[in-house]
Amino acid sequence: MTIMMLALIAVPAQAGKQLISLGTGGVTGVYYPAGGAICRLVNLTRKSHGIRCAVESTGGSYSNIQRVEAGELDLGIAEAGFLYRRVQAGGSRQDSRLRSLFSLYTEYFTILARADSSIQNFEDIEGKKVSIGAPGSAQRLMFDLLLAVNDKRAEGLVTPVELEAARQAKALCSGQIDVMLYTVGHPSGAAREATRDCSSHLISLRGAAAQKLVQDNPWLYWAEIPGGTYPGNPHSTRTLGLRATLFASDQLSEQQAYTLVKAVFQQIEQLRQMHPAFSGLQPSTMAQGPFPAPLHPGAKRYFTEAGLLPGPENQIYSGE
Ligand code: GLU
Fold it and tell me: Class for domain 107-242, per CATH?
């Protein structure tokens, strides 16, 4: 008998792939610690299910969606809005190969300017050096949405600088840019660095334009970054928020998705303690969506079993 035949006999047919990969984001964001926490909870219970989870730092939502669709990653974290757009662009929800597992914490449209700058509102960015991220990035999506709703066009309005998220804070403090944009949970390493190293301040979003964004985009809602989250920013910052969502490809087996969701939900207390952004996580809201991509059958099985019946799958979250 050859070694290969022996190996085939040793692995039970139903075991499937036992290493699952999870795409996160840049190291100064919250996706990276969120993915780390999810994988840690799966790995802690590995003896009972045999699945090992590994995280990868990536460019964030956009690259996670692309790589999960291409079969390069099993799971990813993405903004609900990115998933929504992707599913819409692909035709119907049924055509999509993406599956929702559960939602996480709120990510906020975060705009930071240096203390010495005159920028107090989004409209004040005119003529400034603004970090807008690479095409397809979360920074770019936020910038494009805010420009469009303010009836402005990017050309000539600002000096755009394409920086990856993790390099923005340094660039802000050194004067390479005047404004940094990031859609991220709080507290995040990126905003901590910018507020600590050059006393940057958070800029609020208000008014009819932002309200129109909420009306036009079912995945966006009003949210406040609590005062005191960062040094030098004692007051709450009103802005827009959306849900970070864990998703998978439809190739992830029902059993694997069920095991992962169960490992996280049954250790929710530990998850809450792993990062301040997770401290308010509640199984009932995590199981409610919004789920722009259809719910994975494995997640549905766990939610049903745990009495966390999911809301209508096509329901889009509309407020906190
Ligand atoms: N929201 C960002 C994105 O979708 C990532 C934020 C993070 O890494 O925490 O790319």
Answer: alpha beta
